[in-house]
Each structure stands twice: as structure tokens, then as C-alpha cells.
Amino acid sequence: MNINLLPQKFYINQATSLIVLVAGGSLMLLAALLAGMIFLSNRQLTQLSFANQQIQMEETILRNQVMELELEQSADIQSYLIDYKEENVLVHPIITSFEETANLLDLTINSYQVMIADQQDLSMVSQTGELLYTPISMVVQGDLFDNMPRFKTELEKMAMVYDVHPVKNVVNTDGVESEFLIRLRKLEYEMSDES
Hints:
single chain; alpha+beta; four-stranded antiparallel β-sheet; 4 helices; rod-shaped
């Protein structure tokens, strides 16, 4: 019997090298995949970090713009309020004189409101072109037939009053409430205030 050991040794050696070659290739492929994943994750992390920085920068810019707009709006509102207060600084003496007239006629002023009107509003200019203050809406309680017409007449006699318009009457358990819209002269009242 002839036994040839050479081919058997050759096949064993070849199988071992094949296993080593496949294992080495697999390890290299796995290392390449890991390196690729690390590279891609670092790249995505860099892109996300850059995008986050841009968002934070835009947020800071927008926050600054909002603060500037709020400051501008606040300055505009303060300027408007200063102008409005300067225009309506004379309301207290006017209402005081209206209350005196109402008290003489046994009427009670329940409420009043200075109306807000645009500068281009027609109620700010009379039919003769005279400049007027913003109208005052006033609710007065008392005798409808006797004292309310006299109240309107007495107010219209005042130099500061341009005209008085009755708006509505409401009857309740305490009596009659009448609402008047009172327009005031601008130039004549300022002149009388200076003297």
C-alpha cells in the first residue's frame, strides 16, 4: 500500500491559509466599515454642530431685532402718550366745570370718556374748519324733560364747548340716564387758558 502524504499536507496547509485569509479580509472589511461609520458620524456631527451654531446665531440676531423693535415701539408709545396727555391735560378742569353745571341742575354725571379719534377724523374739525379736541362722551342721570335740555343749553353757552349732541336715553329704576357727545373748541380754549 502506497500512502501519499503530500497532497493531504498540502490541503491542510491550504485550508489554514484560506481561513487566515478570509478572517483577515473580514477583519479588514469590518475595520473599513467602522472607519467609514466613524467618518460619517463625525461629518454629521460637524454638520449638525454648524447648523446648531447658525440657528443660535440667527436666534440671537432675531432676539436683538425683537428687542430693538420693542424699544422703538415703546418709544413710539411713550411719545404718543406724551402727546395724548398734553392734548388731554385740560380734561380735568373741563369735567369740573361740567360737574358744577350738572350740580346746579340737580343732575349727576355717572361717567365720562375721552374718545380716541384719528388726527384725520372729521369730528376733529368743525363745519367752519375750526380745530376741535377729541370728543367727550358723558353719561348724566336726572330729570329727562326739564334738566337735560337745560344741561345741554348751559354747556353750549360755555366758550370751550363747540356743540353738544344727545346720543341716547336709558330709563332704569334710578331715573333716566342720558348720554351726550361733547365737542370742544381747540384754539379758543387754549387762548382762554393762557389768560
